[in-house]
From TrEMBL, chain A:
This is Electron transfer flavoprotein subunit alpha/FixB family protein. One of its GO terms (biological process) is fatty acid beta-oxidation using acyl-CoA dehydrogenase. The lineage of its organism: Archaea, Methanobacteriati, Methanobacteriota, Stenosarchaea group, Halobacteria. It comes from the Archaea. InterPro entries: DHS-like_NAD/FAD-binding_dom, ETF_a/b_N, ETF_a/FixB, ETF_alpha_N, ETF_asu_C, Rossmann-like_a/b/a_fold. Belongs to the ETF alpha-subunit/FixB family. Residues 4-186 form the Electron transfer flavoprotein alpha/beta-subunit N-terminal domain. It comes from Natronosalvus rutilus.
UniProtKB/TrEMBL annotation, chain B:
This is Electron transfer flavoprotein subunit beta/FixA family protein. The keyword ATP-binding does not apply. It comes from Natronosalvus rutilus. It comes from the Archaea. GO terms for molecular function: electron transfer activity. Keywords: Electron transport, Transport. Belongs to the ETF beta-subunit/FixA family. Pfam families: ETF. Residues 21-215 form the Electron transfer flavoprotein alpha/beta-subunit N-terminal domain. PANTHER family: ELECTRON TRANSFER FLAVOPROTEIN BETA-SUBUNIT, ELECTRON TRANSFER FLAVOPROTEIN SUBUNIT BETA.
Length: 318, 261
């Protein structure tokens, strides 16, 4: 019993990138265990998705034709039934917002241990060794699990997406969905964060985080933005606090930006923030903490107090 | 209607720290109310203030020292608190999702809440899974990453915050567990009056035996075997010197890149 079951994700008719990433992670595990890699896709246009998921390393794509969009009750039922049928040693799911909404339920229903947000996976005999971060990315840990079956969610963009085509078999899986057990209904989608400024268009972003401490201190940053003729963006807590509108938020749930230069001021570099700005050409971090995770991706850094550096920088341009 | 809010005291880490085995040396650790739980408490208290909810109960897995954090939740308006601790938990260095759920499941069974509001994740171990796993264990409905909530009768109408500025609108049958995302509200500061009142609120300590949970249920399946500082992936050029010098170097860089004059 050393097969792998990876679960794809789609939204509004599109496979999401993480689907090809779970395939990569699953294929790596299958390479170690010598088992087969099964991929499941639930809901939507499963035929088209199955074609796209016929990727290198995949042995079988299982399609569950039920519903259009994600529904966690359907996913939980379909995936646990597939797991019961295939008895995979490892289930690999995305640590996406939807992954957060069904993977823990799948693990609980199957009564198996759950390793979330893995950034690395390996096996040693029957032991799964997962690499995870703790304390907002300040440390990395290895976590070991011995069990016949383990549920895993993987962090997005940590595994290269598999692009090469494969020769997988496609099988329709006839999941027995109990409609009475569906206790939630998706009624629609809404886009947020529209508005006057599009930070994804800017060449130079001055981005501020919780290091600013107080709303009135934003004036200092505005002064810098003006001196540099830059565009102002921020990490999430600034938007949560209502100090800036949602269209200024960079990150997983905000905007993805790719400026020539991104200046992260008082931003720790949490994974959900980095998801939105790691494609910037040059990243500059100003942060008192030399161990802040943002330093791992910064091209240039100043390990100092923003309240000293920012006024000095304004001085340079006035 | 009764709301249960699991509240966690998370460990915070100073800028400079040392690792001692599989933990950060205690000298560099502080403690704080988990950021996401703060929003969950606020949401519950607002529901009570709106007359939709009659009682807000918090539950914390933690030793006596966590009472300071629990009092914060009480000062913000929760009505009473339960703290679960036991010798069996003393030596567990990673309380994994299964172990947390074993405890919280027993509390849900004892309290029988209509709604459980947890944070999306905790700032220290960041499993991001306890709420949904708990829902499944107790047979409640659920919704993860909720940033808007309207309760009407037996239905919770929520917005789930997906990636890329898209929200999903979902209707969820109650009883339910919702995992609360930051930004759903504006958590209040505990007022002096609130802090005084919190001292008089009930904070009930329960052991595993009190809850009918077997000691081996909390041992967990995950073993933390190593902790280390992540290797830096990029070659970062660090500008050295006082603020004037570093600012001048950064100014040169910005001019060189052609993004500022
Ligand atoms: C589902 C989900 C989605 C999310 N989506 C997003 C998203 O889209 N965007 C986003 O940003 N976050 C998002 N988050 C939140 C994310 O996890 C972090 O909480 C957030 O990014 C932290 O913001 P921050 O870096 O500003 O604050 P902190 O992590 O608090 O960091 C503040 C930093 O400022 C530094 N600092 C403090 N004082 C000073 C000073 N005087 N001078 C210089 N530096 C100083 C500190 O050293 C620290 O590194 C999401 C979380 C979840 C769970």
């Amino acid at each position: 019993m050393s097969d792998i079951l990876a679960v794809a994700e789609h939204r509004q008719g599109e496979l999401r990138d993480v689907s090809r990433e779970v395939v990569t992670a699953g294929a790596e595990l299958a390479g170690e265990t010598g088992g087969d890699l099964h991929v499941a896709v639930v809901g939507g246009d499963v035929e088209t998705f199955a074609d796209a998921l016929n990727l290198e390393g995949v042995d079988t794509v299982h399609t569950v034709a039920y519903g259009e969009e994600f529904n966690h009750d359907v996913y939980t039922q379909a995936i646990t039934q597939l797991a019961d049928a295939l008895e995979p040693a490892y289930l690999v799911m995305p640590n996406s917002v939807n992954g957060l909404d069904y993977a823990p339920a799948v693990a609980t229903r199957l009564d198996v241990p759950l390793v979330t947000d893995a950034v690395g996976l390996a096996t040693e005999g029957d032991t799964l060794v997962g690499t995870r971060e703790m304390y907002g990315g300040k440390v990395e840990t290895t976590t070991e699990v011995d069990a016949d079956q383990v549920a895993i969610t993987i962090r997005g963009a940590e595994w290269e997406p598999t692009e090469a085509a494969g020769d997988a078999t496609v099988e329709a899986f006839d999941a027995d969905i109990d409609e009475d057990a569906i206790g939630s209904t998706v009624t629609g989608f809404e886009e947020v964060a529209g508005g006057d400024v599009d930070i994804s268009e800017a060449d130079l972003l001055v981005s501020i985080g919780r290091g600013i401490e107080e709303e009135e201190n934003l004036d200092l940053i505005r002064e810098l933005v003006e001196a540099l003729d830059a565009t102002l963006s921020s990490s999430r807590p600034i938007v949560d606090a209502g100090w800036l509108p949602a269209n200024r938020q960079v990150g997983q749930s905000g905007k993805v930006v790719t400026p020539d230069v991104y200046i992260a001021i008082g931003i720790s570099g949490a994974v959900q923030h980095v998801a939105g700005m790691k494609g910037s050409e040059t990243i500059v971090a100003i942060n008192t903490d030399p161990n802040a995770p943002i330093m791992d991706i910064a091209d240039y850094a100043i390990h100092d107090d923003l309240f000293d550096v920012v006024p000095a920088l304004i001085e340079q341009f006035s | 209607m009764k709301v249960l809010v699991p509240v966690k005291e998370v460990a915070t880490v100073e800028d400079e720290f040392e690792i001692d085995g599989t933990t950060i040396d205690e000298r560099y650790l502080g403690a704080d109310l988990n950021e996401w739980d703060d929003y969950a408490i606020e949401e519950a208290v607002q529901l009570e203030e709106d007359g939709v909810v009659d009682e807000v109960v918090t539950v914390t897995i933690g030793n006596e020292e966590t009472e300071q954090t629990i009092r914060q939740a009480l000062a913000k308006g929760a009505d009473r608190a339960i703290r679960v601790w036991d010798d069996a938990l003393e030596d567990v260095d990673l309380l994994d999702v299964g172990a947390k759920v074993a405890i919280l499941e027993a509390v849900v069974e004892a309290e029988d809440p209509d709604l459980v509001l947890t944070g999306v994740q905790s700032g220290d171990d960041s499993f991001g899974a306890t709420g949904v796993a708990l829902a499944e264990a107790v047979g409640y409905q659920w919704g993860a990453v909720v940033n808007q909530l309207d309760l009407e009768g037996e239905t919770a109408s929520v917005h789930r915050e997906l990636e890329g500025g898209i929200e999903e609108l979902t209707e969820i049958d109650v009883p339910a567990v919702l995992t609360i995302q930051t930004g759903i509200n504006e958590p209040r500061y505990a007022s002096l009056r609130g802090i005084r009142m919190a001292q008089r609120k009930e904070l009930d300590h329960q052991t595993l035996a009190d809850l009918g949970v077997e000691a081996d249920a909390v041992a967990g399946d995950l073993r933390l075997t190593a902790m280390y500082e992540p290797e830096s992936e990029s070659d970062t050029t660090v500008f050295e010197g006082g603020a004037d010098e570093t600012a001048a170097q950064l100014a040169d860089l910005l001019r060189e890149k052609g993004v500022a004059q």
